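Catalogue entry: protein
Contents: sequence, fold tokens
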Amino acid sequence: MRRIGVVVNPIAGMGGRVGLKGTDGKVAEARRRGAEQRSPDRARTALESLADVGTDVKLLTYGDPMGEGIARVAGFDPTVVGSPATPDETTNEDTRAAVRAFAEADVDAILFVGGDGTAVDVATTLDELDADIPILGVPAGVKVYSSVFGVSPRAAGRIVARFSETERAEVNDIDEDAFRGGEVVTELRAVAEVPVADQRQSAKQLGGGSVESLAESVANVVEPGVTYVLGPGSTVGAIKEQLGFDGTTLGVDVWRDGEVLARDAAESDILDALGDRNVIVVSPIGGQGFVFGRGNQQLSPAVIRQCDLEVVASRRKLDGIGTLRVDTGDPDLDEELRGWLRVRIGRHERRLVEVV
């Protein structure tokens, strides 16, 4: 029987759709902007996938809202190893306490639900305990740069149930204040033991090659009356420059007919700015291939369903990716987006890339 410790960060990812680019220290502001919890649904999806595998598994978890109720809804009868000090206001110390309890209970693996900050809490706590327990993340945060996550909640559930080998992987985090200011400052925070699996995501690559001609080609074909929802990243940032405005490098901007309708927009701002015809312009994350669901949760299913899609990327970036991925939080939409997609790579060139 495989004993798996499960801990859920209930506030992970709340800042994404409301444009905060992270939730560390911003929970009150996220709630003020109308943010809703994201991680419980993703935790449930992962645990249902784990249950579907049908292997002999015993779950250990932390009290609500950090896993117990979700585990029961997913069909498990978990052993509860502790509870958060203040359930209405959980902290990273609650996550650390859960990990210590899992280690004491001698679990075979830890499945955590959150983002890079949660990964840091889990991995550094295990380092302090000198405990060599494999970990795997269910991606639920705004920032998911580290290579310790499944590519989706369902993949994470399958992996933690079936893995037979492990390897070392980096746990990275970024400075959220610098991130909100448009600068990516990454730091290696730990190295963790993780399952070996094709469906575990790679670490994010920050380089991408020259995109000037690509940006110019996109800017030259914008159409009058069309609303352009321009995603984050340096590639789309170059397009914003070609359109004549200083865009938000790590946020979403909305532009139409020479006017910036929304800058660093939350989901609600984007929905308010959409017109009769709308186009989302995004570039996949280097090394991972994610088009939606990593760092651009403002581009929600409600937004995506009202827009055409233009994916742009340099040849170098695509060569390092191979396939594209989506993780919108809506399984039906993810299925609709899967298949072959024409990605613009130059002035007149496109490349067929599969969304898997």
